[in-house]
């Protein structure tokens, strides 16, 4: 291999925010592995991090989901070898997957499911880790088959990337899943993912859920604007229940509404562990579980759109699509 690689790099020019560029190929040492990227998927965090890069005038390589083959390993790597096909979500502070090669700590990866193509596998890591960490780390659910049997989970925005995988994980856990969706195609999608009930988040879904026989819900995942949905979640949450959120609120929230239920508002941010350097190996362990669930038929890929080629244009087009806020499942770029 040469010392340079193709990459898509951020710029400070808002008219041309991404460019194609040859940059130094990462060197690996310690617990790092070097992965030749085969496919990467697009996430809202890519759009947000482009904004951050431009605001701070940084040149960065983004991309936070990938699948590919290990082509080099650091001296301290113990669990993987050259030739292994792996997938991962990576971390914020390093060169990302919008490049031919990416260096990543072995604690953050897992062998990719053998039953999925590169495109199918690339759609899963970041959204699965987000769903897993909300349910396990924040809601305290034991990650074993039927570990939450008989419990009910409401997922607001069930057809997005996180919602699509959370439905499937929750069903493996034995939960009853109520998902929100508003369009014919999104309603069909969440049903296909395994939702038990579907309600329209553009209507009075509090009354709709209560009319289905659920006076309260112990677990609520708000995977969209928290300001828009917090009061409805507060009206449904059960005593000692958990409301989980992933989208930053821009205005004060009436958190006092859940005080008498002694309920919790739980933030989930998948990069918190790597940002802090805390418990990062749990992410590789979670992805190992995902691989097993996929290979055993409990989870299927959530990819719905594919674009070809690593270039500034394809990455920009993918970011534009995701930024619309109405994604069904995941969009994947095949390199």
From TrEMBL:
CDD domains attached to this UniProt entry: AL_MDR
Domain of life: Bacteria
InterPro entries: ADH-like_C, ADH-like_N, ADH_Zn_typ-1, ER, GroES-like_sf, Lipid_raft_assoc_Zn_ADH, NAD(P)-bd_dom_sf, Quin_OxRdtase/zeta-crystal_CS
GO molecular function: oxidoreductase activity; zinc ion binding
Domain Enoyl reductase (ER): 10-333
Pfam family, one: ADH_zinc_N
UniProt similarity note: Belongs to the zinc-containing alcohol dehydrogenase family. Quinone oxidoreductase subfamily.
Protein name: Zinc-binding alcohol dehydrogenase family protein
């Amino acid at each position: 291999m040469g010392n340079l690689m193709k990459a898509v790099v951020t710029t400070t020019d808002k008219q041309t925010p991404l460019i194609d560029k040859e940059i130094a190929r990462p060197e690996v040492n310690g617990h790092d592995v070097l992965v030749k990227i085969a496919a990467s998927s697009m996430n809202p965090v890519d759009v947000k991090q482009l904004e951050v890069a431009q605001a701070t005038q940084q040149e960065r390589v983004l991309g936070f989901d990938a699948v590919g083959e290990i082509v080099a390993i650091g001296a301290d790597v113990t669990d993987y070898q050259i030739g292994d096909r792996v997938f991962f979500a990576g971390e914020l502070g390093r060169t990302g997957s919008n490049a031919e090669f990416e260096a990543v700590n072995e604690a953050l990866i897992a062998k990719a499911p053998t039953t999925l193509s590169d495109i199918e596998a690339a759609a899963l890591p970041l959204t699965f880790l987000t769903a897993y960490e909300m349910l396990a780390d924040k809601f305290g659910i034991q990650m074993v088959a039927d570990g939450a049997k008989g419990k009910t989970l409401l997922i607001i925005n069930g057809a997005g990337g996180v919602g699509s995988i959370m439905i499937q994980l929750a069903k493996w856990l034995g939960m009853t899943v109520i998902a929100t969706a508003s369009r014919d195609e999104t309603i069909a999608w969440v049903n296909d993912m395994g939702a038990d009930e579907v309600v329209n988040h553009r209507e009075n879904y509090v009354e709709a859920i209560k009319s289905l026989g659920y006076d309260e819900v112990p677990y609520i995942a708000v995977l969209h604007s928290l300001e828009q949905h917090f009061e409805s979640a507060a009206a449904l949450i059960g005593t000692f229940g958990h409301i989980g959120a992933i989208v930053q609120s821009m205005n004060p929230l009436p958190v006092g509404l859940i005080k008498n239920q002694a309920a919790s508002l739980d933030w989930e941010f998948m990069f918190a562990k790597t940002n802090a350097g805390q418990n990062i190996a749990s992410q590789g362990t979670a992805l190992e579980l995902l691989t097993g669930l996929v290979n055993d038929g409990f989870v299927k890929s959530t990819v719905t759109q594919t674009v070809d080629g690593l270039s500034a244009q394809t990455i920009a087009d993918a970011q534009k699509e995701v930024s619309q806020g109405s994604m069904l499942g995941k969009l994947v770029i095949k390199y």
